[in-house]
Amino acid sequence: MKVVFIGGGAFRTLPVARGALAEKKISHRGEICLYDLNLERAEAMGRMIMRTPEFAGTGCKITWGKSLEASLEGADAVSVVLLAGSPKTFALGYPACHSRGYLATDNTTVNGAFLALKGGRLITGFARKMERICPDAWLMIFANPVAVHSGVVNNHTRIKAMGICAGYQNHMWDLNRLMGRDEHCDQFDVDVAGVNHLSFILRGKYRGRDLYRELEKHIAHGLKGGPYNRQIRFVLENMIAMYRRFGVMIFSNELDGAYHLYPEKVFKLLVGNRPASAASVAADLKRSRERRAGDNDEFRAMLNRDLSLKFWDDAARKHHPQFGREDRSITVEILKALAGAGKRKLVFSRPNRSAVPGFKPENVLEYSQYLDRDNCVPAAKLAVPDALHGIIGSISQYQKLLGDSIVSEDPLDLYRALYAYPLAHDSGKYWALCRELLRINREEIPLSFQGAADYF
After folding, report:
1. Which residue among 3, 14, 20, 432 sits deepest, i.e. has the most Cβ atoms within 10 Å of its Cβ?
2. Rounded-to-integer distance, Cα 160 and Cα 135, Å
3. In degrees rounded to 5, what are phi and psi of residue 394?
4. Element (H, E) at 364
């Protein structure tokens, strides 16, 4: 099996590569190809992968490509990790949003929309190359907003794509915490439907027993256990409250999703009375650059050190997590399925196509799916609860329209997408925010999009 990592110099590549190499169906006489605009970083990552204990004896080739086209030759699966545009323009969206009372993140918020206008063009370009070079390969998109990018590729190219999220494992922590254990547990089997960062556990099993009946034994009198920090406690208490009100819990508690249900509460929790400012953004960017430079130096220095088996065994616990191993990451689970190591039940973002009743076929939803080497089929009987159907429909339609505008580059299409944002309400402050985000991102998005302001 050949796996290509676009953005392969990213630190998260090593833990995923270690997890993938441990599965012989993936690694035996296979190839991991790292493509990165920074070839030096890709080479450093490739050489480090070859020093891992999982690599030894596999016969797997580790390569780093100078061109994307050469890297894609013969690919069975392609993973893309990126933050499109400059970190500065993205970060400046935070004070722009916060000062007007809107949350700013890289996903479901309007700041995420402008990130999509940059990332969507790049990812569509990758998919167009795949159409020519490796048309049967799956594209795994680990670049927010994943739902928008998944929609662009699936609805406008011939490539099969899935929007994947690290939050796939969140429920394995949160459900276990509700049972009084602050640790990861993979004994949950859940059926999920919604949108990325705001999908719902419709039903499930815990060690073969009904999930919600088991949870009732622990949450009947509220949250127990801890101590938890303020954000985790909010998440857990909100899961209990949602279950009492709607009969479901949020699957992956990334709070920019819950923001669309409880905007005032989430904004107060994450932003409070100290919204981001241009000065704080500049300071954060400087610290981030310094931290990344230090991490790069540490990573390269490790290439010249004797790394024992004990080092690799203890890496995630005693060293920077970039040296750890991810056996259950969504990327590794997908690769296992595609390599023929058995069917996997997974949750990721794809167009609905009748998987969940009541939503348009081309609208991207996040839902439970069975994946193996030959097929990808939705789990049975998925349905968003009636009381939550409207907000999920609004978000999915907004994200679909946004994806369409990325392809058309039509300012009216962008206006319609931004109008569909469920927390917009056609208000003056919202359109002022959109004008500022157009200005901030002017140099990094198609010039035609500036015309959207004529409709605001």
Report:
1. 20
2. 9
3. -65, -45
4. strand 364-371
Contact 100, 432 (CB under 8 A): yes
CA distance 348 to 248: 19
| Residue 319 in this model has a pLDDT that exceeds 70 | no
CB 412 within 8 A of CB 228: no
Q: What is the DSSP string of 218-272?
A: HHTTS--S----HHHHHHHHHHHHHHHHHS-EESS--HHHHTTTSHHHHHHHHTT
CB atoms within 10 A of CB 386: 9
Q: Using an 8 Å Cβ cutoff, are 348 and 330 in contact? A: yes
Amino acid 274 reads R
Whether 356 contacts 392, CB under 8 Å: no
C-alpha span between 75 and 372 (Å, rounded): 17
pLDDT given at position 221: 87
Q: Which of 58, 9, 31 is nearest to 134 (CA)?
A: 31
3-state SS assignment for residue 419: helix
Contacts of 418 (CB under 8 A, 6+ apart): 110, 113, 402, 424, 434, 452
pLDDT in tens, 13-46: 999 999 999 999 999 999 999 999 999 999 999 9
The residue count for the chain: 456
pLDDT in tens, 78-128: 999 988 889 999 999 999 999 999 999 999 999 999 999 999 999 999 999
Is the pLDDT assigned to residue 372 strictly greater than 90? yes
Q: Residue 186: what pLDDT?
A: 94
